[in-house]
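From the pipeline queue, job 12 of 40. The input is one protein chain; the requested action is below.

Action: predict structure.
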Amino acid sequence: MTERIVGEMSAMPMLRICAWCIHLLTASGVVFGLLALSEIEKSHWIMAIIYLLIALIIDGVDGPLARKISIKTVLPRFDGTTLDLLVDYFTFVIVPALIFYRSEILPAPLRFAAAAAILMSALHHYCNLDIKTADGYFVGFPAFWNIAVFYLYRFPPAPWCAALMVFLLCALTLVPIKVVHPFRVKKFRVATFAVTLFWGVLAVSALARPAWQSSWLLAGNLAPLAYFTWISLRRTFAGSDFLAR
């Protein structure tokens, strides 16, 4: 018993170092957000979106790592949840809103209104205490504006149609639809993770070759979106007993 206690105590410093490294990884998202801002100043939209997707990857990795070591137990006086929300609001919302405002994705008369709607509707999402269901789904559109700006820039519809999509997503932030979390929802987790990786490869390909406008590339990027939409709608209309079936 004594040897076990001594072993646990000796392991704690290493766990704390790991915990701080994970928090540092989370915080590094703001650096990529800053790099995206520097690209926006130069109207380099592709590079700005690439930096946002890197920040998205970091956000997807740090959570599982934190839960793996029970980071709240290791560092109980540092709020990683607040850190994550601050970084996410910057990289998921503020920077994409600026891309919408400064680029030509949207019609000029609506750019400021759309950016303001994005910022304000996302505040509702981040301040909502019921932001997630018990089974890991987001409630309402989860302010994934970094993904929205990727689709609307790389595969642009008509500007007025893009504006309609933006305002629709803002409205859906306030609607209690259930949106799948790629890593926290247990049902279909393996398939969802595989689809997420598939989308990541296609998204990188689309950004690396901006001149490509082939139908297969568009279809390939829309297929994962259709998959996530299907799971989300299934959960929304199935009710709370979805996982039990």
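Job complete. Residues 1-11, 240-245 have pLDDT under 50 and may be disordered.
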